[in-house]
Amino acid sequence: MRNIARRITRKQRSLVLIAGMVVATFAATMPATGSTPASVRTGGEVSAEEQATAQPVTEEAAEEALATAKKIKRNQSVRGTRQVVPGRHVAGRPDATIALADLWNAKEALDGSNETAARELLARPRAATQTCSTAVCVHYTPGKGGDRASVAYATQVRDVVTKVHNIYVKAGYRKPAADKAVTPGKVDIYLENLYDEGYYGYCAPETKVSKTAATAYCVLDNDYATSEYGSFNTPTENLRVTAAHEYFHAVQFAYDAGEDRWMMESTATWVEDEVYDSINDNRQYLGYGQLEDQRKPLDNSYASNLGIYGNWIFFRYLSERFTRERGDLPAVVLDVWNRAPSTYSTLAIRRALAARGTTLKTQYARFAAANLAPSKNYSEGGAYYAPVYDGRTALPAKRQTVDGKFTLKHLTYASQRLVPKKVGKGWKLRIKVDVARPSANAAVISIFRTDGTRGVYHLKPNSKGIATKTIEGFSSKRIRKVEVTFANASSNFKCGQGTAFSCRGVASPDKATHRWWAKTYR
């Protein structure tokens, strides 16, 4: 789902994160649904059958889902006092697609007036007419003002969404499951004035068609007028990237309408730029993801609802690392979604990587190192945010040993920057690391030279987690900086624990404390 946004600076990002904390995301308290497993293993793989077993939704959790979903509808909104803040977030408002999907997954636990309210919230909008292609039907009310849309615009939406549909089908993705009643065999798109509700668009699951899959309908804005959405993108550009993003949600529901929300939103944001490469709308969310906020778990869907968009960068890393395409899209993300119905997000990623002869630990550590130099590691990285670090130590020309430590949650990383300060010839730098639980954690040393070249060394700790690296010629003339990066790739979960992480579970183990020492000598 795409919320109204404006472009941001790095200083503004911290204000947004504070504002986002007022939103208590429903996903953090709802028991596992859809394909999310009800029980967990802390080591080894879990059978597909176990992964597909759903934990019953409690009445309390269902009522919370209902309360959250009510906030997205106009007659329940803060219309007239809506505050738009940077990023895909309206203060006090939930993500519409996530809220409706959560309500859909929880609706069976409601009864009486609550059941009626849920049914009304999940109901399709109304429209007077439609225009259809072979794949989709666009429903709208002709005219100007309010929820009405012009015939020409409705036709444009039909053509744009049909193009997006064909790209996804050519790339091997499942077709969205179409309803059998309104327009049999076609996916329905509705046009409304969404600006007043604070959104670009959303999709909602509707009818269950398998243990995990559901039909879907989508809602897009009725004009994306510049007077409402601003002029950074044209109305056509906003339509295109929103259609790519939202229709991908309809595709996702054809796999698993209960999949982990971070993967739903991150891959939907990733695919925007794959389908419409020249628009680059998703770059504005990088400041919320691990390119800049690496101490929040990659799979965190809680509270601010912002990192789930910015972490599209992880899937960009994978798609640039594993470049084989199917149709016009990288195949690696397709392979993840093909595994999603029988498991949860991070396990699906692990299995897709295993099929490529690698591991999540290896790729997550390389991802962490790549983010230290976006312009060197991503095809469009020169336009990304500048890299960040967690600690910085200047090392003058004297014999000394400095040390430090990082305690990292699952799927997070941190970097210590070491900088030579007026250091001449003949000096060396010896780095020692103590990597906790090296089976799931890793350490990388990146050397940035003054001539613009870079050396990246993936350390191989011994059985006790100890590894060393000596850097010859540690002088200010040769070395600009050295980064010591630790990555915690722990991805075994005790599922169904009411968190907002993978399978709504708790990583087991979660935290890991890593230590480093740096010695200058000659």
Automatic annotation (TrEMBL):
Protein name: Uncharacterized protein
Taxonomic source organism: Nocardioides albus
Entry superkingdom: Bacteria
Region (Disordered): 32-58
NCBIfam families from the UniProt entry: MXAN_6640_HExxH
UniProt entry tagged with the keyword Signal: yes
Record flagged with keyword Signal: yes
Signal sequence, start to end: 1-27
Keywords: Signal
